[in-house]
Structure formats: structure tokens, C-alpha cells
Amino acid sequence: MNQTKEKAEILYLNMIKKYVLGELQIGESNTETISFNQVKEIIKNVELKYRPQLVGQKKNLRDVLALSDETIMQSLNKMAQESSNLTMCKPELLDHTEFLVRKIINENIPGDLLEAGTCRGGMCMMMKATLEALGDKSKTIYLSDSFMGLPDADPEKHLADAIWNDILKCIGSLACSLDFVRNHFAKAGLLDERIKFVPGWFDETLPSLAINSIALLRIDADWYHSTNSVLNFLYRKVSDGGFVVIDDYGLPTDCAQAVDNFRSQHGITSPIIKINEQAVYWVKEERQVKWNF
Ligand SMILES: C[S@@+](CC[C@H](N)C(=O)[O-])C[C@H]1O[C@@H](n2cnc3c(N)ncnc32)[C@H](O)[C@@H]1O
């Protein structure tokens, strides 16, 4: 590749990474902090609320949370203070998305790109910027989210998800409006007809979504039910050689259980590859999948 073009491409993509990571001022950060006492109070309340399930399922709250109160306080404050960032993901995940999109274009992997659980949309901006840098005009990016935050979880089936859902309510349940996301796509010059928003709950929007094939299916939806719904409705559309990224595989929620159950139900043995301490991906190999749904 021509050296000047290659340099411009790197500069542009580094600038987009800074934009979505909040390093270029895009709005006011939340300056309120959540105190240790507030966290203790929240945890006391969830323990009281879910005592019947904890007892019935013979579980201990500390084991379900898997994190100390101190770590929970730090994580909540980090999430609240980074609410002006366009992505909650770490820089290495942006690099990895760029890497996958480059592979999809260079290796002609058919299909569009879809993120289920976009929140403020930064990861999809990274996908679009990479397509732009590579001069691709063929792929569409789908952003699927409630744009109202995380749904409630059933404590009888997925107690960890229900408890974490209650804890995250103190920072607004990760809700972000569609207008906010659309405006920031436009500000970065990335909004066009190849950006398609899919607002609503996955169970309602994904079964009838008009998308033929998917080259990159990125799932960042925290809970068992949400992750399972996306896999159930969309995995069959992932192209042979396409990629499935699970952002929350390492979280103390039931996300990994949803992935493991789905993979074993469908005989998927493509190796799970770690991206960082939280996220993983695999390459879909069609011949391995025993379709029975
Ligand atoms: C952790 S955030 C996504 C972070 C995002 N990928 C980023 O780059 O920062 C999880 C998102 O999943 C969405 N979500 C979870 N379950 C959902 C469901 N069943 N239907 C629609 N949206 C859902 C929430 O609204 C939330 O925006």
C-alpha cells in the first residue's frame, strides 16, 4: 500500500479510537461519586430482596457477586465517570474490532456487521471508521439495543443477572438514547444509509430482522437471556469463516453459561479465543454446526 495512504489510515483510526474512548472532549463527565457506604447499602438491599432465591438455590451472595464491595464501588464509579465515553470497552477491544473488520474485508468474508448491545455506540463507530478507511461501500452495520438500558432478569433462573441488574440501577442501567448515538455518529462523519438502528428488545426485534448474512456478530449484552436470544436468532446467519465476539464472557453474570450451553447444544467446537480478561471470540466453522432449531 502507498505509504502516505497507510499513514493517513492509521492517523484517522487512532483519532476515532480517541473519540470513542472520550479522550477528545465530547460532553460532561459525571462527577458524582458512589461512596463505600452507598455500595454497602445497595448490597444489603439486594441480599434482603433476593434472600428467598439465595436460600432456595443454596447460594451465598458473596459467591454470586464474585467481587469485593471495594471492587464493586470502584467499577460503578469508573462506569459512571466514563459516561461521556462512547464505549465502555477497553482500547485493546477497539484494536481487536479493527483487526476483525480488516480481516473481513481482506478475506472477502460475506455478510454485514452487527452489534447486539451497543449502548453509546462507540464500538460500531470503530467498525464504520475501519470500513471507511478501507474504502468499503458494501457492508452495512446494524446497531441493536433497547436504547433504554438493561432488561430485568429472572432471579429464579439467573440470580446473578438479577442481582447485578439491581446494582447497576444506581448508575442508570446503562441506558442511552438512540438520538444520542445517532448524533455522535453524525458528529464523527460516520452516519449514512449503511448505519441501521434496530431499537427495541432483542426478543422483539431480532426474529424479523431483515439481514441475510453476518460477517461479524458482536454480542455485548451482559445477561444470560439477552446473550442466548441473540445467539438463537442470529447465529445461523453468521457466514462460514465469520466471527462471533462475546464481550462479557468473563463477567460474574451468567453470560458465559449462555454461550457454553448454546455451543454444546449445537455442537460448536471452534476454539474460544481470549481477547482480554473479559472478552472472547471464535470463528464460525459451518461444518461443525449441528442445526437442530
Ligand atoms: C454493556 S452495554 C454495551 C456496551 C457497548 N457495546 C459499548 O461499546 O460500550 C449493554 C447493552 O446491552 C443492551 N441490552 C442488553 N440486553 C438487551 C436486550 N434483551 N434487548 C435490547 N438491548 C439489550 C443494554 O441496553 C445496554 O446498552
How do you describe this structure in short?
Helix content is about 45%, strand content about 10%. The protein is an alpha/beta fold and about 290 residues long.
Descriptive labels:
293 residues, alpha/beta, Rossmann fold, 7-stranded mixed beta sheet, 12% strand, binds S-adenosylmethionine
List the helices and strands and how they pair.
Elements: H1 3-20, H2 36-49, H3 51-56, H4 61-65, H5 69-81, H6 91-106, E1 112-116, H7 122-133, E2 141-145, H8 159-168, H9 178-187, E3 195-199, H10 202-205, E4 214-219, H11 224-234, E5 238-246, H12 255-265, E6 273-274, E7 280-283
Parallel strand pairs: 1-2, 1-4, 2-3, 4-5
Antiparallel strand pairs: 5-7, 6-7
Helix pairs in contact: 1-7, 2-5, 6-7, 11-12
Bound molecules: S-adenosylmethionine.
The site of S-adenosylmethionine has 22 residues, from helix 7.
Structural shape = globular
Helix content: 40-55%
Amino-to-carboxy terminus distance: 45 Å
Strand percentage lies at 5-15%
For the record, the count of structural domains works out to: 1
Query: Total number of β-strand segments?
Result: 7
Examine the secondary-structure arrangement and name the CATH architecture: 3-Layer(aba) Sandwich
| Structure annotation, total helices | 12
CATH fold node name: Rossmann fold
* Chain oligomer state: single chain
Largest beta-sheet characterization = 7 strands, mixed
Radius of gyration: 19 Å
Mean pLDDT comes to 93
Bound molecules: S-adenosylmethionine
- What structural class is derived from the secondary structure elements? alpha/beta
* Poorly predicted regions: none
CATH class equals Alpha Beta
> How are the strands of the biggest sheet laid out side by side?
3-2-1-4-5-7-6
Order of helices and strands: HHHHHHEHEHHEHEHEHEE
